[in-house]
Structures are given as C-alpha cells and as structure tokens.
Design goal:
single chain, 273 residues, 4-stranded mixed beta sheet, two-stranded antiparallel ribbon, 8 helices, binds heme C
Length: 273
C-alpha cells in the first residue's frame, strides 16, 4: 500500500489517527546495512516477504548466528527463513479444509500490518461520526478516505463493479465481510476473496495457487501465505499487465559448482523436452 502524504497526515490528525499515521510514514531501512559509526547500533534492515510495502519483516537473530531471514541484496525480498513459523498464528477454519490436524496450518496475521485499522472503528466510523455513511455499494468519490488511503482514489478492482462495502463490513469497520454478511478477520482474507473467486480459493486450498513454507512432509506443519500477503485488494487490476504486480528484477543465477565452467551439460538430455 502506498505511503501516506503530509496532506493525509493533517486529515488523519482530525480523525485522531496521529500515531497510526506516524507509524506508516516511518521510512523503510535500506536493504544493505551501511557502515555506521562505532558507537551507534547497526541500522535496522527491513526486507519484504511477498508484497513490497505490505509484508515487511525486520531482520533479527532468532538465536546467536541464526537469522530470522536472509534477503536478496538486489530486490530486498526474503529468500530464506530461519524459522518459517516465526510470528505465525493458527489459520482458523476454512470451509472444506477439514483434514488438517489442529495447529498444522498457520498464517502471518495481517492485522498488525494495517496501521489505519485500529482507528477505523473508533476514530472515525464509530457510529456517530461521520454522520452520513454511504448506504449503497455504488462507487462514489470519498475525499477524506482518499487522502488517508491513496489506493481509494484510483481504486482498481472489479472494473467499477465492486466497491468498499462488498469487502468491508458495514457496521464493523475493523472486519471484512463474508457472503452471509458475517464479519471476517483481516487475518483470514481467504474467506472474503473466496466469495467471488471460488476457483482461486479451491486452487489455494489444493496448493496450486499461492505459497506454503514449512515442513517437507505433506502432513507436516506449514505456513500458508494468505491472499492479501501477495495481492493488494485495492489495486489488483493496476498497471500495464492489468494485474497489480510490478515485475522485479530476477536474481542472478546460482554459482556453478567448483570446477564447472558452464552449465551446457544440462542441454544434453536423452529425452527431448
Ligand atoms: C476486494 C475487496 C475490497 C474492496 C472492494 C475494498 N477493500 Fe479496503 N481492504 C480490503 C482488504 C482485504 C484489506 C486488508 C489488506 C491487507 O491485509 O493488506 C483492506 C484494507 C483497507 C484499509 C486499511 C488499510 C491500512 O493500511 O490500515 C482501509 C482504510 C480500506 N481498506 C478502505 C477501503 C475503502 C475506502 C474502499 C473503497 C474505496 C475499500 N477499502 C475497498 C479489501 C477491500
Ligand atoms: C465482491 C466480489 C469480489 C471480492 C470479494 C474480491 N474480488 Fe477480486 N475481482 C472481482 C471482480 C468482479 C474482478 C474483475 C474480473 C474481470 O474483470 O474479469 C476481480 C478481479 C481480481 C483480480 C484480477 C484478475 C483478473 O482476472 O483481472 C485479482 C488478482 C483479484 N480480483 C483478487 C482478489 C483478492 C485477493 C480478493 C480478496 C482480498 C478479491 N479479489 C476479492 C470481484 C471480487
Ligand atoms: C504467494 C502469492 C499469492 C498468494 C498467497 C495468492 N496469490 Fe493470487 N496470484 C498470485 C500471482 C503471482 C498471480 C498471477 C498474476 C499475474 O498474472 O501477473 C495471481 C493471480 C490471481 C488471480 C488472477 C488469475 C487470473 O486468472 O488471471 C486471482 C483472481 C487471484 N490470484 C486470487 C487469489 C486469491 C483469492 C488468493 C487467496 C485464496 C490468492 N490469489 C493467493 C500470487 C498469489
């Protein structure tokens, strides 16, 4: 999600969101650690797991010599996890996903990444202010929201066919909404996305779409990446490819084993493919 502008900070103040706004404007630390003066502590290094600006993780040691993540110096993306379950919580129920024993499916909560969320249902949409809330799902400009959430200005999902309250709960703003009008946690976006993208939910459940890391055995414990860890729900149809994703520079190929000059042997296969 895009960073807040100073204009939005002023508006946010009006809504009593100062702490949230300040938290979002904090700059991300550079991916490569700069050499600091001896007395100052090493600068914080931040990488992203799956969506830049939305799934940041601060580098730290889990135990002496065991980093939580190793990151690409080229893209800042996480390439390796010291503990795939660090910071995860149980995934919660997903319809038709009943065969996984308790505790074997975990996710990283989204809630703690959403700086505006804490204030949504208290600072602004608290039932008193603003006095008029949209009552329909018809796309309408909402300048106050646009200043706080630049995504809302250039909303790119559903080609004008869907709007805020198709996804956000009408009366509980700190919840999403499922097909029955029931509140859904931001940590379980699959229950929201799946109501319109049933095919993708099925693929995700089957492990054909998305990503899982963790124990190798199929019965082992896994961290599942949730839909919003990869997709920004407000701009999935943005950009040249109409997909919301920006291509990142590919990593350099891995180093060849000692003594090997090139990888031409890989071109010689008995079977054409
Ligand atoms: C397709 C479903 C969908 C629609 C439509 C939608 N949102 Fe969201 N919105 C979400 C989800 C899911 C999240 C949580 C994103 C995440 O986890 O990164 C979110 C997050 C937010 C947040 C919290 C952002 C933060 O960083 O704290 C705000 C505010 C918000 N949406 C406002 C809106 C407004 C205003 C509209 C209408 C212009 C809208 N949304 C339309 C699904 C939607
Ligand atoms: C209320 C229904 C609804 C919900 C909920 C919803 N979407 Fe969509 N989504 C749509 C529609 C409609 C389109 C546009 C499809 C088209 O134009 O072909 C779309 C398009 C997309 C696209 C672009 C793919 C394409 O075919 O253009 C992605 C990616 C996507 N949605 C992901 C998500 C994710 C992730 C969530 C949950 C955070 C979500 N959607 C929730 C209705 C929804
Ligand atoms: C690990 C990252 C990741 C996760 C998790 C993930 N997606 Fe996707 N999704 C992608 C990528 C990458 C694409 C392909 C986009 C492209 O074509 O550029 C995609 C494509 C899509 C599309 C468009 C497909 C099309 O036919 O063009 C939809 C809709 C979608 N995802 C919905 C979901 C839903 C719903 C979930 C959760 C149940 C989910 N995704 C979870 C990465 C992810």
């Amino acid at each position: 999600m895009k960073k807040l502008t100073s204009g939005s900070l002023i508006l946010a103040l009006g809504c009593g969101l100062l702490s949230a706004a300040l938290a979002q404007t904090a700059p991300a630390a550079p991916a490569a650690a700069a050499s600091a003066a001896p007395a100052t502590p090493a600068p914080e290094v931040t990488c992203f797991e799956s969506r830049k600006g939305a799934s940041e993780v601060v580098k730290k040691d889990l135990s002496p010599g065991l980093p939580n993540v190793k990151c690409s110096s080229r893209t800042g993306a996480v390439l390796w996890w010291g503990d795939p379950f660090d910071g995860t919580v149980p995934m919660g129920d997903v319809p038709l996903l009943t065969k996984i024993p308790a505790g074997k499916a975990v996710v990283k909560p989204r809630t703690e990444k959403l700086n505006l969320l804490a204030a949504c249902g208290t600072g602004c949409h608290n039932g008193v202010i603003p006095p008029t809330l949209p009552t329909t799902k018809k796309p309408t400009p909402i300048p106050t929201m646009e200043a706080m959430l630049p995504d809302a200005k250039n909303f790119q999902h559903g080609r004008g066919g869907i709007w805020c309250l198709d996804c956000h709960h009408t009366t509980q703003r700190n919840k999403l909404v499922d097909n029955f009008g029931d509140p859904v946690s931001y940590d379980q976006p699959q229950l929201l996305c799946g109501k319109c993208h049933g095919d993708k939910l099925r693929d995700w459940r089957d492990g054909i779409h998305g990503k899982r890391i963790g124990e190798w055995a199929s019965t082992g414990k896994k961290r599942w990446f949730t839909c919003t860890e990869c997709h920004n729900p407000h701009n999935v149809q943005d950009g040249m490819r109409n997909r919301g994703f920006i291509q990142i520079a590919p990593e350099a190929p891995p180093q060849l084993p000692h003594g090997m000059i090139d990888a031409k042997h890989e071109l010689r296969h008995g079977v054409a493919h």
